[in-house]
Write a structure and sequence with these properties.
This protein is mainly alpha-helical and 208 residues long. 70% of the residues lie in helices and 0% in strands. It is globular.
Length: 208
């Protein structure tokens, strides 16, 4: 079983290395999104530099890899009776691969979009909670970072509330939420200093 866990984790981690923002910026502009704006390989920085009209492709890639990572790990561990735990392991590995991709020099995204799809696969109630928190916070403040941080906290809280009866699943969810918050540590610092930039997710801003 140990080898199966390792294979499940590595498969999902490598899937996480497939970054939508990096792939699409290379395809449409022969460019690297990480060379612009915040330097982050995520959806927000992609929209800021290439516009919202092409963001769907980023969503498909980052969402698709999260789904595949969860399902592949669940399939590998299902024979041992750990399907849900496998999904959680796959989700954690995908998010690690997205945020710290070995194939991209360990410079990836912050994991909010991937985390949404991980939650959707594991428990749709957590996905609904994440979306509700994100959009309420975003439309109230126009800070994508603050909305993302609160959504990550809701992600962790959702696993505690809905999966308290399974310690591995609950801890996996808390770890994923904590990792997403950690990836926003720079944003947290700027928010506290009043230096964070507001973002209109529905239009392109000037390329930096």
């Amino acid at each position: 079983m140990v080898y199966s866990i390792m294979i499940a984790f590595l498969t999902a981690y490598l899937l996480g290395n497939l970054n939508g923002a990096v792939c699409i910026s290379a395809l449409i502009a022969d460019d690297d999104v990480r060379k612009h704006g915040s330097g982050n390989a995520g959806l927000t920085n992609f929209i800021r530099n290439y516009g919202a009209s092409r963001a769907l492709y980023v969503v498909i890639i980052d969402g698709g890899k999260a789904v595949l990572g969860c399902l592949s790990a669940a399939l590998i561990l299902e024979p041992y009776g750990y399907s849900l735990e496998g999904m959680t392991l796959g989700g954690l590995a995908v998010m690690l691969g997205h945020s710290f991709p070995a194939l991209l020099g360990f410079k990836g995204g912050k994991g909010i979009l991937s985390g949404l799809f991980v939650a959707l696969v594991i428990d749709w109630r957590i996905a609904v909670l994440i979306l509700a928190v994100f959009f309420v916070a975003y439309f109230a403040t126009r800070y994508v970072s603050l909305a993302s941080i609160l959504a990550a906290a809701a992600f962790a809280a959702g696993f505690v509330v809905f999966h308290y009866d399974s310690l591995p699943v609950m801890l996996g969810g808390v770890l994923m939420g904590a990792m997403a918050i950690f990836m926003h540590r720079g944003n947290i610092s700027r928010l506290l200093k009043g230096e964070e930039r507001k973002t209109d997710l529905f239009k392109k801003t000037k390329q930096e």
